[in-house]
Design brief:
The chain has 83 residues and is an alpha+beta fold. The chain has one domain: 2-Layer Sandwich (Enolase-like, domain 1), CATH 3.30.390. The chain is built from 3 helices and 3 strands; from the N terminus they run E-E-E-H-H-H. It has a 3-stranded antiparallel sheet with strand order 1-2-3, covered by helices on one side. Strand 2 and strand 3 form a beta hairpin. The longest helix has 13 residues. The chain starts with a strand and ends with a helix. 28% of the residues are buried. The mean pLDDT is 97.
């Protein structure tokens, strides 16, 4: 199993906790802070997905005028987890 606690930058959420299997399937995701309902939805949607698929779909999403978003920060965390 792989695990990371990623400190976000530029978003309302402060931390993302992710666990993935050795073959890069996301087992669990939890955000600390941010828009609770939206982030719960993202967590449920990405659980069971391959890391590369999630990065492909969510990379570069922006939140309003911000340069990043919680989904984009999830991609940064997944890139580090993937190694």
């Amino acid at each position: 199993m792989k695990h990371i606690q990623y400190q976000t930058e530029g978003t309302c959420s402060m931390l993302i906790d992710i666990t993935a299997s050795d073959d890069d399937v996301i087992q669990s995701v939890a955000f600390l802070g941010g828009c609770d309902g939206n982030l719960q939805g993202i967590c449920r949607l990405v659980t069971g997905q391959k890391i590369d698929q999630v990065i492909e779909r969510l990379n570069g999403i922006r939140c309003g005028s911000k340069r990043t978003s919680c989904p984009d920060q999830l991609c940064r965390a997944l890139e580090q987890l993937r190694g």
